[in-house]
Amino acid sequence: MVNRKKKKLRYGFIGAGGIAGTHLRDLSRRDDVELVAMADISETNMRGHQDRFDIPRTYSDWKEMLRVEALDAVSVCTPNRLHERAAIDAMKAGCDVLCEKPLAHSAKAGERMLTASRDLGRKLVIGFQYRFNPRTQFLRAATDDGQFGKILYTRVKALRRRGIPNWGVFGQKELQGGGPLIDIGVHVLEMAHYTMGSPEPVSASADMFTYIGNKPSNRVESAWKGWDYKTYTVEDLAVGRIRFENGAVVHIEAAFAAHIEKDDWDFQIMGEKGGATWDPPRIFRDQAGHMVDTSPGWLAEETFQGMFTRKMNNFVDHCLYETPTLAPAEDGLAVQRMLDALYRSAERGGKEVKV
Ligand SMILES: NC(=O)c1ccc[n+]([C@@H]2O[C@H](COP(=O)([O-])OP(=O)(O)OC[C@H]3O[C@@H](n4cnc5c(N)ncnc54)[C@H](O)[C@@H]3O)[C@@H](O)[C@H]2O)c1
User: Fold this and answer.
1) Region 9-127: CATH code
2) Least confident span in 50-59, 165-174, 301-310
């Protein structure tokens, strides 16, 4: 239990690769957080962070770190397949957990994580930074304000023309649970679902295609070269549809590689009374006998690191001062169930399946 007056939040990492760096940058700026230790199987990955952020100890086994260090909180930043084990071990050791997105590699794993969190009385938060973006907050406020009326349809896009990750294990289905749908589609889907007021999903269908990632990257000029095509077992492009209990429908497109003009990262809401886009943030309604487009007079500029700053501060405040989390693990599980159903449908040739 954290002593809220005197003690700092003793913080550790399970997985210390790329995204751990963004967590560390924000945590290192707080004087109520003590960066204590990291656990990773890559000594090289840990060394970079250790030198930069002055972290006292590193471990090759997270269980040992959890046994020795008496941590209060942990960021789980491993490949998706390990989120479940790492988060549950950390909660068993008495830690609150910020788990990077997606919650897990499967909905069943996510359910076990939530059960552990409830049974052990530990906080479990999902690393959804996009809901901290002022655009998302603007659109969610518009939903709550009834600006869209009944939301009928939302179109979700997380599309890269050529952006297959050339680090980590993002092309390996076994370790990640999937490709662009679970890796980047998850971000825009969760923003859209949150903005829609988190309706209950009931069924889903999807088709997935692999045609570029399983071939060498040197055939075409692009910025992200050198992905491991030999171990590539995920989709390049996923196209899916989700139906909700309230009658709304989401259509999602996610791609690491697609023959399109340019990358596309957006969602578009269509409701009975109004609609909206996220990029740019705009609302479309009928007013005074005219079709009117509205954009906010001012919104805070948001960078990738800026969203992380809000996400990390929200987690630390939640742990230390019991302020509410904006990203409960329950929301991570809701999205995970949709992702699971989409992958299941694709395995069954696009047949509609229950969520
Ligand atoms: N929120 C975001 O925008 C965002 C962005 C990128 C990645 N992520 C998520 O963060 C996670 C990590 O992604 P990344 O880009 O940092 O990948 P990465 O490959 O850079 O880092 C993963 C780290 O996990 C370590 N690891 C692997 N097996 C381990 C084990 N058994 N024990 C301890 N450490 C182990 C690897 O050595 C590596 O250092 C993924 O779940 C990914 O989806 C989130």
Assistant:
1) 3.40.50.720
2) 301-310
pTM for the predicted model, two decimal places: 0.95
14 C-alpha to ligand 1 centroid (Å): 9
The full DSSP string for 246-268 is TS-EEEEEEESB-SSSS-EEEEE
Alpha carbon of 58 to ligand 1 centroid (Å): 16
Cα of 92 vs centre of ligand 1, distance in Å, is 21
Does residue 2 register a pLDDT over 80? no
Integer-rounded Cα Rg, in Å, for the chain is: 21
* CATH 3.40.50.720, the chain: domain bounds: 9-127
The helix (run of H) or strand (run of E) holding residue 85 is helix 83-92
Distance 84 CA to ligand 1 centre (A): 13
pLDDT at 3: 45
Q: Which of 49, 120, 44 is nearest to 13 (CA)?
A: 49
Test site for ligand 1: of 13, 19, 45, most ligand atoms within 8 A of the Cβ = 19
CA distances for 144 relative to 89, 105, 137, 148, 272, angstroms: 38, 31, 10, 9, 14
Ligand 1 centroid to 16 CA: how many Å?
7
Pocket probe for ligand 1: among 41, 59, 83, the residue whose CB has the most ligand atoms within 8 Å is: 41
Mutate to test the pocket of ligand 1, among 40, 62, 231 (most ligand atoms within 8 A of CB): 40
Give yes or no for residue 25 having a pLDDT over 80: yes
Q: Where in the chain is the domain with CATH 3.30.360.10?
A: 131-301+336-354
pLDDT, mean of residues 249-269: 98
Q: How far apart are CA 34 and CA 1, in angstroms?
A: 15
List the CATH code of the domain at 131-301+336-354: 3.30.360.10
pLDDT at 98 over 60: yes
Mean pLDDT of the chain: 96
